[in-house]
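Exam revision sheet. Question 4 asks you to relate a sequence to its structure. Input first:
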Amino acid sequence: MKQDLLMLYKLIVLYMLDTVTFSLTKSQIGDFMLGKDYTHFLTLQRVISELEDADMISSKTTANRTYLSITEEGKSTLNFFENRISDEIKIDVKNYINENKWDMKNEVNITSEKVDAVLESFRGEILQVPPMYSALKVNGQKLCDLARKGREV
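Answer key, structure tokens:
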């Protein structure tokens, strides 16, 4: 693969991360890069890996998603080489982000609705039965005391 193309792909990823005010997932970057036919999946994975190795982006994996952010090193590199990204590509990136900004932001942000939905699964009647050796009281007596006496409740 030509090094010029690989460098362009890296600059596009840096440009995307620099354009937004929040982290992007690998899949969000992939949706753009692969959807616009700039490159294919394996090359994109290589680009992201090399950017991470060069400390130009940072990654954090949470709940099976990898969130990417541009680092200061990445910003400096982008500022130096940004002129190598064509205006057409910059317009493509900006249009994509403007069209998908709220969906992308909602995907990476934890909302109170998401938290409530998860918490709801923990609400309701408790099906767990405490063991007889617990300190839970039944009719004023500890279950562990009743268990020592051989009684079961």
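Marking note for examiners. DSSP finds seven helices and five strands in the chain.
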